[in-house]
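$ ./design --mode recover --in tokens.txt
reading tokens...
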């Protein structure tokens, strides 16, 4: 049946209505999208941008690198390197037990302990700090696969020279905060500032490796420059180790100090300590004994008794004191000398280290005057060294001294100080009488290269004693190393050495008396440098030596070894009159020589004996080193200015220059060694 026109018209109208409805819905949706986009992009822009940034990135608190510690020669002593640590977000971890079993063998930890940390609803927990490179390589695929497990970049402190100056440098904790030594004392300069940086994350909330950082040099810790020279430090540590081991001692310290300004060029200790593995060492080794441990100086203190005597005007250097054949009674106590001495001059009392002589000097001098002289050198106070926990020296008021106490202090008993404080006092004697402040840091520089700190002596120099007194004291110290003094083993051919031995009893606090089996053996002194250079005071102390208890036998050889190295390093020129070596004199054919021979007289007479001492007329003869070890050869030539070249190992089979030839300045020693030892 055919449709009517009315029905067809009705269907068309219905279709048009449906089309209009659909078009209206489409237009409405488009308008809704536009309105929503307008609302999101314009009205809610800030809100949605913040949400996007929060999902894609986050502000991370970053601690900038800790500053470096450099030696005086520019070598790195403490640096900071980048490392990685592993952390977890337990609330995002589904199977903590399974993950703990996977991580345990990699990290070397127990499964139960790991499972406990990975469980719960905490948002952050450290799993392992300071991962090794092997651990990082193994864990990287696991962190990419597992949700809630990630790396964190951290700074780690490293000491490239291992044990070198370990106790001086100290160490930091795992967060790079100074805990001991210079790391602690200068922590406010060394620590890096904390800044917030924006880090990007991927869809799994893993840090994106290519996140860019701004330049952070300005916020890094400052660079600290020490006065310590790595070469001097190494030589001091080696010589000290030999001294302690050879004497079967318990421990020891050695110092090298510039006498003019108190700069410490070396601060050695034995046993040594590696701050890279501090947990593997006994915490007792962390302590820098030369700066924080008090000790009684013993006979090294006698030189200040001589200074007090000369300063008072009551004595002259050539005055004689009766040393009572080595026994002198004071009250109920008897003071003894090692040898029986009679009349001794004041400088001979120092040379032979007479306890009786020093006791008689201070009895005549008086306690108050003696005490005043000691205070001028800073005894009983801190030296103000830039190192943590320095104690004050202990010296009771002169009003509390009994007669025997006065005598004891005169030869270094009943008074205590650190090794640094004693060395600083000797520096005053070596520089003409001015006190110095020991210090380990010369300057501090920030990231921009500006010097924010530089050591300078504050105020006018303080005089401890007159220059004339120091000259007389210097002569007395020089007598100590003579062949019949207490320290002939400190002699160095070609150079004038001055110093003082010390052997002091340790106090036994259990028995409340001085021990007869435990001693400190020490030596402190200096070598006269060429004109224009300052003296370097070298101090060596061995604690509880067994082989011998005397400083001249135990510490003086180490003093000599250190100075032999310093002499070569600092280019000291030997004095031929002090060298004790053969002298090559050009032959002369002159009338007086012929006449002397005919008369049976020695040709070393008149004009032939008047040999000029200029470099053209006088030269040292090279010894024969064949058959010796290189150590023995270096001991003999350590005081020369010439350098040494070595090939092979074992004993010397040939040498240049040849034995018996002249030793010309600037010519190197060349030794060829065999394979036999």
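writing sequence...
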């Amino acid at each position: 049946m055919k449709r009517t026109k009315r029905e067809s018209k009705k269907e068309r109208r219905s279709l048009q209505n449906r089309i209009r409805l659909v078009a209206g819905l489409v237009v409405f949706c488009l308008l809704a999208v536009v309105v929503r986009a307008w609302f999101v992009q314009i009205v809610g822009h800030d809100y949605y941008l913040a949400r996007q940034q929060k999902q894609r990135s986050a502000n991370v608190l970053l601690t900038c690198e800790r500053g470096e510690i450099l030696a005086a020669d520019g070598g790195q002593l403490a640096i900071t390197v980048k490392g990685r640590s592993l952390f977890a977000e337990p609330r995002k971890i589904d199977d903590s037990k399974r993950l703990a079993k996977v991580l345990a063998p990699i990290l070397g930890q127990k499964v139960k302990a790991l499972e406990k940390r990975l469980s719960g609803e905490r948002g952050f927990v450290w799993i392992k700090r300071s991962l090794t490179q092997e651990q990082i390589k193994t864990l990287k695929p696991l962190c990419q696969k597992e949700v809630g497990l990630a790396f964190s970049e951290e700074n780690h402190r490293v000491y490239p020279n291992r044990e070198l100056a370990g106790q001086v440098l100290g160490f930091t904790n795992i967060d790079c905060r100074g805990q001991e030594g210079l790391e602690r004392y200068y922590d406010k300069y060394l620590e890096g500032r904390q800044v917030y940086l924006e880090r990007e994350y991927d869809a799994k909330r893993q840090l994106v490796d290519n996140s860019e950082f701004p330049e952070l040099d300005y916020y890094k810790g400052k660079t600290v420059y020490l006065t310590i020279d790595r070469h001097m430090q190494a030589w001091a540590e080696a010589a000290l180790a030999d001294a302690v081991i050879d004497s079967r001692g318990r421990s020891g310290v050695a110092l090298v100090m510039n006498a003019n300004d108190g700069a410490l060029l070396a601060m050695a200790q034995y046993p040594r300590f590696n701050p890279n593995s501090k947990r593997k060492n006994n915490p007792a080794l962390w302590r820098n004994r030369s700066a924080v441990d008090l000790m009684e100086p013993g006979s090294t203190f006698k030189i200040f008794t001589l200074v007090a005597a000369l300063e008072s005007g009551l004595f002259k250097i050539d005055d004689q004191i009766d040393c009572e054949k080595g026994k002198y009674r004071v009250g109920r106590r008897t003071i003894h000398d090692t040898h029986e001495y009679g009349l001794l001059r004041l400088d001979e009392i120092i040379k032979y280290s007479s306890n009786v002589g020093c006791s008689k000097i201070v009895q005549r001098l008086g306690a108050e005057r003696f005490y005043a002289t000691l205070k001028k050198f800073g005894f009983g106070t801190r030296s103000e060294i830039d190192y943590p926990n320095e104690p004050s020296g202990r010296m009771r008021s002169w009003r509390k001294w009994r007669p025997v106490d006065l005598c004891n202090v005169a030869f270094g008993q009943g008074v205590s100080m650190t090794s640094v404080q004693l060395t600083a006092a000797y520096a005053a004697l070596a520089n003409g009488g001015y006190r110095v402040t020991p210090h380990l840091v010369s300057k501090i520089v920030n990231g921009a290269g500006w010097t924010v700190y530089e050591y300078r002596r504050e105020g006018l120099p303080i005089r401890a004693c007159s220059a004339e007194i120091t000259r007389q004291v210097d002569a007395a110290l020089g007598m100590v190393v003579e062949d019949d003094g207490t320290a002939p083993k400190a002699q160095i051919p070609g150079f004038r050495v001055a110093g003082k031995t010390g052997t002091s009893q340790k106090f036994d606090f259990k028995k409340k008396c001085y021990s007869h089996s435990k001693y400190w053996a020490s030596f402190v002194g200096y070598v006269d440098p060429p004109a224009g250079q300052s003296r370097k005071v070298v101090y060596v102390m061995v604690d509880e030596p067994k082989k011998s208890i005397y400083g001249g036998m135990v510490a003086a050889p180490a003093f000599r070894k250190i100075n032999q190295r310093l002499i070569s390093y600092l280019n000291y020129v030997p004095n031929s009159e002090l060298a004790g070596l053969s002298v090559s004199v050009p032959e002369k054919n002159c009338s007086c020589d012929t006449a002397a021979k005919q008369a049976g007289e020695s040709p070393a007479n008149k004009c032939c004996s008047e040999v000029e001492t200029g470099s053209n007329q006088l030269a040292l003869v090279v010894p024969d080193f064949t058959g010796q070890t290189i150590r023995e050869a270096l001991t003999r030539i350590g005081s020369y200015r010439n350098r040494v070249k070595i090939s092979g190992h074992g004993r010397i089979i040939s040498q240049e220059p040849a034995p018996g030839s002249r030793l010309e300045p600037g010519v190197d020693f060349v030794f060829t060694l065999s394979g036999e030892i």
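exit 0
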